[in-house]
């Protein structure tokens, strides 16, 4: 994996995490939390996707990646 892709994954992960936090604080998530005790699936999937993308991107940056 090259460095540009790793950095792009880190940027995408930040946006996904921000979007997930925003989704967790939405009205629909509040309603879901009231009835089920947990936020909406969309909010959870965004947070998990952001964390996975961040871990993969960070691993790629730390590992060094190939420079072509």
Give a quick summary of the entry.
81% of the residues lie in helices and 0% in strands. It is mainly alpha-helical.
Q: Provide the succession of SSEs.
A: HHH
Described by the principal axes of the CA atoms, the overall outline is elongated
Which class do the helix and strand fractions yield?
Answer: mainly alpha
Radius of gyration: 15 Å
- N-end to C-end Cα span: 11 Å
Q: How many domains, as an integer?
A: 1
Number of helical runs? Answer: 3
Q: What fraction of the residues are assigned to beta strands by DSSP? A: under 5%
- Largest beta-sheet details: none
Helicity level: over 70%
Number of strand segments: 0
Let me know the average pLDDT: 87
> Which residue ranges are poorly predicted, with pLDDT under 50 across at least 5 consecutive positions?
none
Structure write-up:
The chain has about 70 residues and is mostly helical. The chain has one domain. Helix content is about 80%, strand content about 0%. The protein has 3 helices and no strands. The longest helix has 23 residues, at about 40-65.
Describe how the helices and strands are arranged.
Layout: H1 3-24, H2 27-36, H3 41-63
Helix pairs in contact: 1-3
List keywords for this structure.
single chain; 68 residues; mainly alpha
């Amino acid at each position: 994996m090259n460095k540009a892709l790793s950095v792009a994954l880190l940027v995408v992960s930040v946006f996904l995490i921000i979007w997930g936090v925003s989704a967790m604080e939405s009205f629909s998530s509040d309603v879901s939390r009231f009835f089920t005790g947990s936020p909406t699936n969309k909010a959870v999937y965004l947070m998990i996707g952001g964390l996975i993308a961040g871990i993969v991107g960070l691993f790629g940056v730390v590992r060094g990646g190939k420079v072509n």
